[in-house]
Amino acid sequence: MVTQTQSGKAFEYALLIALQNKVNNGQKIKIQKDNSYKIAKESFESCLSNEQRHYFKAATVAIKHIGTIEPRLENPINSEEIVLSIQADQKGEDGDIRDILMVRTKSNWEIGFSAKNENSAVKHSRLSDKIDFGQKWFGVNCSESYMSVVGVIFGKIRKLMRESRMNGDVLLWSDVPKISDYYVPVLEAFEKEICSLIKSNKDIPLSLLEYLIGKNDFYKIMKFKDIVTIQGYNLHETLNMSSNSINPQNKVSKLKFPTEIISVTRNDNNKTIITFDKGWQISFRIHSASSKAEPSLKFDVRLEGVPPSLYSHNELW
Question: Is the full-model pTM beyond 0.85?
Answer without folding.
Answer: yes
